[in-house]
# Entry
Amino acid sequence: MKIFGSLTRNQKEAIGLLQIGTFLEYFDLMLYVHMAVLLNELFFPKSDPHTQALVAAFAFCSTYLLRPFGALLFGYIGDHIGRKTTVVITTMMMAISCMIMASLPTYAQIGITAAWFVTLCRIMQGLSSMGEVIGAEIYVTELVKPPSQYPAVASVAVASVFGTVFALAVASLVTHFGLNWRVAFWIGAGVAVVGSVARIRLRETPEFLEKIKYIREKIKVDQVDSGVISNFIRTQKLINKEKMDRKTFWAYLATTPGMPLSFYITYIYFNTTLKADYHCSSEEIIFHNFLLSIISLGIFVFVTILSYSVNPLKIVKYKASVGALVLLVLPFVIINSKTYTTIFLLQSFLALTSLSSVPANSILFRSIPTLRRFTTASFIFAVSRAFMFVLTSFSLVFLTEKFGYYGLWFITLPVSIAFLWGIHHFQKIDSVGADKQQFSPLAA
# Structure
């Protein structure tokens, strides 16, 4: 492909390995998310529709609640030991959690213990996925220069969407042909092991190695004693001197809740409506979401290719502006939707106009100092998704009950406005150069 024509063989190989690993990781992560309509009935006690909605919300959110702790852990490893080490460890964690889930007895066999075990596995998957996509995207950001950098980084996101599509395809086949649901998770465990092995071949990024080399040389020159603790303290002080502009930090934070909101409303929010009003079975909902994921994959591929010749921030701002209008009229459209086809078309349009920062992620990453990049990006990513998924999963149950579909506005309008402000801020500083926003004494 022309957009990757200027890359070296090593760069292309690294991007390929990261894409494979991200695909496999997201296949495993999304397998349960999209089979939840079936698996929640197996691992959680049956109850009335309102309680079932809360149980489904709990099962969904459990994946994301402890992500901030995973972000701190893997962020530290990524910023101090290396990007490569992080992506290998997280992929192997995903494989182990899939193996456990594939062998786990159901609620009918061991009672409430099954619910606790499956929740722990989901937490483990959430922790491992935390260091996955951020690590891969930062790795490519530091490996490739613009303009090839934009589609190269975005291709990692494409791989994650493709992993979701494949997960839904496997889930649809398993449920359609009446196969044991465990088959899907054994497949997931297998592909995660393959991803871990493949990523061992990666090399560390030159930008990270240069920064580490600078710090070690700085410590060697200024060193008074050679103790391990002393070296650690000096390293931390040098890293902490790298600061991010405060307004840019808030702009970065404002862009992160958009995607989880769009994902939840597009794929999860309508499941109850499809079951209650259109009498769709779990198998039909899984296939329904599979078709939606293909549409999402198509738009991600399109914007990735487009980012080579069009400024990524312009693409994101245009798509998000349309998406904000869609979310504004969403309650009216749902209320006046009378057919299954109308609901599907509405979800398709939501997928096309999602509040996603792809393909501009590399521009956002460059605003963060190198040796704080992994921790800062992954922690904000984790907190925003944990907060948004908890907020949407639980509050929409009550907001919809009290205000009808207009309850969506309490969440969609503030998030849309914040997202557009954040992208507007990055457009202003991008003309100057995002790297200059680091204000880093180590950049010289």
The CA atoms of residues 255 and 310 lie 20 Å apart. Residues 434-444 have pLDDT under 50 and may be disordered. The domain at 2-438 is CATH 1.20.1250.20 (Growth Hormone; Chain: A;). The two ends are 35 Å apart (CA to CA).
